Amino acid sequence: MAIRRLGLPAFSRHGTATLRVSLLFSVLFSVLFSVLLSLTLSLLAGLAANQAQAAVEVRDFDSPVTAERYRSLTDGLRCPKCENQAIGDSDSPVAKDMRERVATLLREGRSDREIQDFMVARFGDYVLYNPRLEDRTLLLWGLPAALVLLGGVLVALIVRRRRRASARALSAEERARLDALINRHSDASGDH
Amino acid sequence: MKRRLLLVIPLLVFIGLAGLLYRGLSLDPSARDSALLARDFPAFSLSSLENPEASYDASLFKGEVTLVNVWGEWCPTCKQEMPQLLDLADRGVRLVGVDYKDSREKGRAFLEEFGNPFEVNLFDPEGELGFELGVYGAPETFLVDANGVIRYHHTGYITPEDVTETIMPEVRKWQ
User: Fold this and answer.
1) Backbone angles phi, psi at B40, to 5 degrees
2) Which of A184 and B133 is assigned the larger pLDDT?
3) C-alpha B152: how far from its chain's center?
4) Is the CB of A96 inside 8 Å of chain B's CB atoms?
5) What range defines the domain where residue B81 resides?
6) Within the 60-89 window of chain A, which residues sit less than 8 Å (CB to CB) from chain B?
């Protein structure tokens, strides 16, 4: 009774081997496929980035650190007109104006945070690719963490319950039935 | 029985998620509130399209509810929008234009061809004021209350329905 409830598929030795081989093939195939796919995608993205870079003007800064800050700021600010492009690789006029302003503010010695604040004050939180942790964004940042925590608690509860269930001793009646089953089995194999 | 009920939970979660995502399909991703709502109209100092000697600043908006329309001769939608702006002016709304990233000649020719519903047209050839307003494409329209505070923002084309259904109620609300 207890064994049947486990519901494990009973494979013959031959069946298990076929299953193993087909599993191996499907794993190999999916790995190969995803590697090829990601290679193609990254190649395409690289091409697109090169093209976009060609459209964006070259700027000189007095230090490589400032140049790097310019690059990271323009990559992290979203173009308000084009929905899913950073201002660093958009051709739209407003993105050009914003890049110009970022460069001006950098030369004035403003901090990254000040420059981001400056853009948010005019174009809204929309322009930040990385939303800030504020009261309004608590749900956004907190929900994934809360879900992971909830999942962990659930798994822990289930594991504990199973352990307890398996550790619980069989009742006298269950023990007797189990013995009977085992005896019958050994009797049957003894006949051979 | 209790266990059976637990099995319904994934279905409920799925239905909830599907509903949420289905709603997302019909939302306009470009619709969002201006960052300037409930804030003072930004400071500026510009001449007018008509008069290069004139000088205007944000005190232009004190004392009367004003609709500020950002336009440019280069903007085809602005041309389509002009009849609605003329209609708004006929309804007694005070309009101020911002001629955005334009030349004086082209701006003046535009008004001559399509009509001029504006009390003043601020001339913003470099897009300075437009940038302060967070404008990312003409036409854009802002409603400024009598204290010079921005109260409503409309991105893009104003349809004849928008005039009666959104703009006029907003104007009346702040008058």
Assistant:
1) -65, 145
2) B133
3) 7
4) no
5) 34-174
6) 80-81, 83
